[in-house]
Amino acid sequence: MAKAFFRLQKFLRRTQFLLFFLTAAYLMAGSLLLLQRTRFVIQQGSRGTSANQALPVPDRVAGVGIVDPRTLQNPQPGPRLLVSMDALQEPALNQRHSPRWLVSRNSELRQLRRRWFHRFISDQEPMQTVGFKAMKHTGEHKGTYVGCFSDDSRERTLKGAVFYDLRKMTVSHCQEACAERAYSYAGLAYGAECYCGNKLPVTAVKPEECNSECKGEKGSICGGVNRLSIYRVEELRTGARRRRNVIYRGCFRAPENLTDTFPASLIQPNLTVEMCSEFCSKKEFPLAVIRGQECYCGYPTRRFPLHDGAEGQLCADTGRYCQVYQTPVQDTRCTDRKFLTTKSKVFVALSSFPGAGNTWARHLIEHATGYYTGSYYFDGALYNKGFKGEKDHWRSRRTICVKTHESGKTEIEMFDSAILLIRNPYKSLMAEFNRKYAGHLGYATDRTWKSKEWPDFVNSYASWWASHVLDWLKYGKHLLVIHYEDLKQSLIPKLKEMVEFLNMTVTEDRLLCVENNRDGNFKRSGAKQKDFEPFTQEMKDLINRYILTVDEALRGRNFTGLPREYVPR
């Protein structure tokens, strides 16, 4: 009996070891497979990969330019282009010139959102308990700490400028930003928000109530919940003055009653632009208006919209005209934003091809309506800069509209209506290539442009630019087509169309405020000129045929065709 028991015990031990070995092998194999399938996401970013990294294609994919997966094993040597209006009925693009990775985008984007979500959660984890004495208000900070104050979002005193950085906010960063914009005080709240102004809040509170650690600076305090850590930055302003941007807006006809139009004024002998700009900056106005020895401060309004400029000589020869300058002060009449208080009954998409100006359009819509926009994705860089709708679930209906680059019948029919933003494909491709390899504000290096990545990118993405528009024209239920170039040229009229389409009503002054803050925080600084032509003749022939196809499709649906500036003749 003992011998049989010993044999059983020996067998169980071997079985336990075998099960452990098999389990470990299974987990390792699964991990390797997962890493292989998600490798391109880590390397290439959120919207795709090069053609030679495409994943297996599902059996059914809706949308123009997607072919039967079996053809991927035997690619054709020559490209087949979109032709005529038949593209609206049947897929016609050869897989060589379509974004092959896009066909498996749903599972890939879910993986990407999980990765972003975990990164976001890790950023939001409660920070380790730090003794209040260990946190410091001074030290390397150049401004003078004033104290901790109560912050009421409805009656905010420091409202001259507002900045967010939910990952890298520091006391110095906030101080310098406020000093460069000619403010006297910088206030930090929630560890990540920066407010500027020239007046202190009324209510001071206990120092320990400011207890939020700065997101980008361990050991330093950046306010708290409804609490502001305030610094005086006047001593920084002398050094920052030479970095301030006072922008000449032009010569304009003066309104009939200047004192009624502008809330603040100054009469000064030998008045200079710098004197007037300093005066208006201290008063927290974005415009400095000069007529002779008179200085006026205010905002763009219906009485003074800054739309019809005049010859500069008129400002020197007659008192009926005035010179207008943009001060470093931010126009804050349209910076307040919030989530919808009740769920939206209409589910609206803000759809575009990547690189077509979707982020800029969101900035305009948010500031015009006062409500956040959502996103089908989660972009941590956008969230950190104040697009708070990024972290909200895209189907929550708490945002005014939802950003998407998706195409295909299933993805499009989820929305009740859509604003379809279209941009010149040459500009879109270059913008997305820059974003893919250098982020939202950077530029890809010349070496990257001249590598094989660029032709692979054009071959994959050019057809997506066309198929994206064609799919939305085919499956979209209620569309408003906006051309990026028209929006840039005629901001107020086009923005009015977008706001009305969203069933919102806004004041003229708010729209003028948006126009005054038109660029937002995600505009690349200038157009980086290249000493070479990135598009080969073969690329141009390909893109031009897509342009003609899309132009024909738009006109076939009674929409305005593509702008003449980039339609081939």
Task: Pick out its properties.
569 residues, alpha+beta, Rossmann fold, 6-stranded antiparallel β-sheet, 5-stranded antiparallel β-sheet, 17 helices, 18 strands, 15% strand, sulfotransferase activity
List the helices and strands and how they pair.
Elements: H1 2-44, H2 105-124, E1 144-150, E2 161-164, H3 171-180, E3 185-189, E4 193-197, E5 213-214, E6 217-221, E7 227-232, H4 234-241, E8 247-253, H5 258-261, E9 264-267, H6 273-282, E10 287-291, E11 294-298, E12 309-310, H7 312-317, E13 321-326, E14 348-352, H8 358-369, E15 374-375, H9 380-384, E16 402-404, H10 409-413, E17 417-422, H11 425-438, H12 446-449, H13 453-475, E18 479-483, H14 484-489, H15 491-501, H16 508-516, H17 537-556
Parallel strand pairs: 14-16, 14-17, 15-16, 17-18
Antiparallel strand pairs: 1-7, 2-4, 3-4, 3-7, 5-6, 8-12, 8-13, 9-11, 10-11, 10-13
Summarize the model shown:
Residues 142-234, 245-334 form the WSC domain. By secondary structure, the chain is of the alpha+beta class.
What does this structure look like?
With 569 residues, this protein is of the alpha+beta class. Among the domains are: 88 residues; 80 residues, no CATH class; 198 residues, P-loop containing nucleotide triphosphate hydrolases (Rossmann fold, 3-Layer(aba) Sandwich), CATH 3.40.50.300. Helix content is 37%, strand content 15%. It contains 17 helices and 18 strands. The strands form four sheets. The protein has a six-stranded antiparallel sheet. The protein has a five-stranded antiparallel sheet with strand order 1-7-3-4-2. A hairpin with a 2-residue loop joins β5 and β6. α3 packs across α4. The longest helix has 43 residues. The protein is globular.
